[in-house]
Amino acid sequence: MDFPEIGDLSRRVKILVREHIPNRQNGFSPETVCKDEVWGKLEVVGSGMYFGTKQVESTVTHRVYVRRYDGRTRPQDLYGVTELEIDGVRYRVQRVADVAGACRFTVMDVEEKGDVGKRSGRPRISDY
Protein backbone atom coordinates (compact mmCIF):
# COMPACT_ATOMS: atom_id res chain seq x y z
CA MET A 1 0.00 0.00 0.00
CA ASP A 2 1.42 3.37 -1.03
CA PHE A 3 1.22 6.61 0.91
CA PRO A 4 -1.24 9.27 -0.30
CA GLU A 5 0.45 11.99 -2.36
CA ILE A 6 0.32 15.74 -1.81
CA GLY A 7 -3.23 16.99 -2.39
CA ASP A 8 -4.85 13.54 -2.15
CA LEU A 9 -6.35 14.22 1.28
CA SER A 10 -9.01 16.50 -0.17
CA ARG A 11 -12.28 15.26 1.37
CA ARG A 12 -13.78 15.92 4.77
CA VAL A 13 -14.23 12.68 6.70
CA LYS A 14 -16.59 12.60 9.67
CA ILE A 15 -15.71 9.81 12.10
CA LEU A 16 -18.92 8.56 13.73
CA VAL A 17 -19.38 6.32 16.77
CA ARG A 18 -22.47 4.74 18.35
CA GLU A 19 -23.06 5.81 21.94
CA HIS A 20 -25.82 4.99 24.37
CA ILE A 21 -27.26 8.20 25.78
CA PRO A 22 -29.49 8.17 28.90
CA ASN A 23 -33.13 8.96 28.11
CA ARG A 24 -36.15 10.06 30.17
CA GLN A 25 -37.50 6.53 30.57
CA ASN A 26 -34.57 5.49 32.81
CA GLY A 27 -32.93 3.65 29.96
CA PHE A 28 -30.51 4.31 27.16
CA SER A 29 -31.04 5.28 23.53
CA PRO A 30 -28.42 4.51 20.87
CA GLU A 31 -27.22 7.60 19.00
CA THR A 32 -24.63 8.23 16.32
CA VAL A 33 -22.21 10.93 17.47
CA CYS A 34 -19.49 12.68 15.43
CA LYS A 35 -16.20 11.88 17.20
CA ASP A 36 -13.92 13.83 14.88
CA GLU A 37 -13.66 15.41 11.43
CA VAL A 38 -10.42 15.20 9.44
CA TRP A 39 -9.15 15.45 5.87
CA GLY A 40 -8.97 12.16 3.97
CA LYS A 41 -8.72 10.35 0.66
CA LEU A 42 -11.47 8.06 -0.66
CA GLU A 43 -10.67 5.44 -3.27
CA VAL A 44 -12.63 2.57 -4.77
CA VAL A 45 -11.05 -0.86 -4.27
CA GLY A 46 -10.28 -3.14 -7.19
CA SER A 47 -12.53 -6.01 -8.16
CA GLY A 48 -10.03 -8.61 -6.86
CA MET A 49 -10.27 -7.24 -3.34
CA TYR A 50 -14.04 -6.79 -3.60
CA PHE A 51 -14.68 -10.41 -4.59
CA GLY A 52 -12.10 -11.65 -2.08
CA THR A 53 -14.02 -10.03 0.76
CA LYS A 54 -17.33 -11.47 -0.47
CA GLN A 55 -16.00 -14.93 0.41
CA VAL A 56 -15.67 -14.03 4.10
CA GLU A 57 -19.12 -12.38 4.40
CA SER A 58 -17.62 -8.89 4.60
CA THR A 59 -17.86 -6.49 1.68
CA VAL A 60 -15.17 -3.84 1.23
CA THR A 61 -16.10 -1.29 -1.42
CA HIS A 62 -13.76 1.64 -0.65
CA ARG A 63 -10.59 2.60 1.19
CA VAL A 64 -10.23 5.77 3.23
CA TYR A 65 -6.82 7.23 4.08
CA VAL A 66 -6.39 9.82 6.86
CA ARG A 67 -3.30 11.41 8.38
CA ARG A 68 -2.35 9.83 11.69
CA TYR A 69 -2.76 12.08 14.72
CA ASP A 70 -1.97 10.77 18.20
CA GLY A 71 -5.13 10.40 20.24
CA ARG A 72 -7.39 10.97 17.21
CA THR A 73 -6.73 8.78 14.17
CA ARG A 74 -4.29 6.06 15.14
CA PRO A 75 -5.71 2.56 14.57
CA GLN A 76 -5.89 2.17 18.37
CA ASP A 77 -7.90 5.41 18.68
CA LEU A 78 -10.45 4.27 16.09
CA TYR A 79 -11.48 1.20 18.05
CA GLY A 80 -15.25 1.17 18.16
CA VAL A 81 -15.71 3.53 15.20
CA THR A 82 -18.69 2.23 13.31
CA GLU A 83 -19.16 4.60 10.40
CA LEU A 84 -17.65 7.38 8.32
CA GLU A 85 -19.48 10.10 6.42
CA ILE A 86 -17.91 11.56 3.29
CA ASP A 87 -19.75 13.92 0.91
CA GLY A 88 -23.14 12.88 2.28
CA VAL A 89 -22.51 9.13 1.94
CA ARG A 90 -22.18 6.74 4.90
CA TYR A 91 -19.58 3.99 5.04
CA ARG A 92 -19.35 1.18 7.60
CA VAL A 93 -15.79 0.53 8.83
CA GLN A 94 -14.65 -3.08 8.36
CA ARG A 95 -10.90 -2.88 9.13
CA VAL A 96 -8.42 -0.25 10.36
CA ALA A 97 -4.65 -0.41 9.86
CA ASP A 98 -1.46 1.65 9.72
CA VAL A 99 -0.20 2.29 6.17
CA ALA A 100 3.10 0.45 5.65
CA GLY A 101 3.82 0.45 9.40
CA ALA A 102 5.33 3.93 9.17
CA CYS A 103 3.02 5.66 11.70
CA ARG A 104 2.17 8.43 9.20
CA PHE A 105 -1.25 7.48 7.80
CA THR A 106 -4.18 5.29 8.83
CA VAL A 107 -6.21 3.33 6.26
CA MET A 108 -9.76 2.07 6.75
CA ASP A 109 -11.43 -0.54 4.58
CA VAL A 110 -15.11 0.40 4.43
CA GLU A 111 -18.42 -0.73 2.97
CA GLU A 112 -20.68 1.86 1.35
CA LYS A 113 -24.08 2.03 3.07
CA GLY A 114 -25.77 4.78 1.04
CA ASP A 115 -26.80 8.42 1.15
CA VAL A 116 -27.31 10.03 4.53
CA GLY A 117 -30.44 11.91 3.44
CA LYS A 118 -32.38 8.87 2.23
CA ARG A 119 -34.39 6.71 4.58
CA SER A 120 -34.26 2.97 4.35
CA GLY A 121 -37.38 0.99 3.58
CA ARG A 122 -40.15 1.98 1.20
CA PRO A 123 -39.49 4.90 -1.13
CA ARG A 124 -41.36 8.12 -0.49
CA ILE A 125 -43.58 9.69 -3.16
CA SER A 126 -41.14 12.61 -3.38
CA ASP A 127 -38.35 10.16 -4.36
CA TYR A 128 -40.01 9.47 -7.74
Provide key terms for this protein.
globular, 6-stranded antiparallel barrel, SSP1_head-tail_sf, Thrombin, subunit H, disordered C terminus, Head-tail adaptor protein, Phage_SPP1_head-tail_adaptor
Give a description of the structure.
The protein is mainly beta and about 130 residues long. The protein has one domain (about 10-115): Beta Barrel (Thrombin, subunit H). Helix content is about 5%, strand content about 50%. It contains 1 helix and 6 strands; from the N terminus they run E-E-H-E-E-E-E. The protein has one helix spanning about 45-55, and strands at about 10-20, 30-45, 60-65, 80-85, 90-100, 105-115. Strands 1-2-3-6-5-4 form a 6-stranded antiparallel β-barrel. The longest helix is centred in the middle third of the chain and has 8 residues, at about 45-55. The chain is globular and about 50 Å long.
Quickly describe the structure:
This is Head-tail adaptor protein. The chain is mostly beta strands and 128 residues long.
Please write out the topology.
Blueprint: E1 11-22, E2 28-44, H1 47-54, E3 62-67, E4 81-86, E5 89-98, E6 105-115
Antiparallel strand pairs: 1-2, 1-4, 2-3, 3-6, 4-5, 5-6
Strand numbers in spatial order across the main sheet = 1-2-3-6-5-4
Distance between the termini: 42 Å
Tally of separate domains? 1
Low-confidence stretches: 121-128
Instruction: Give the overall silhouette.
Output: globular
| Tally of individual helices | 1
CATH architecture label = Beta Barrel
Pfam family, one: Phage_HCP
Protein name: Head-tail adaptor protein
Organism: Sutterella faecalis
InterPro entries: Phage_SPP1_head-tail_adaptor, SSP1_head-tail_sf
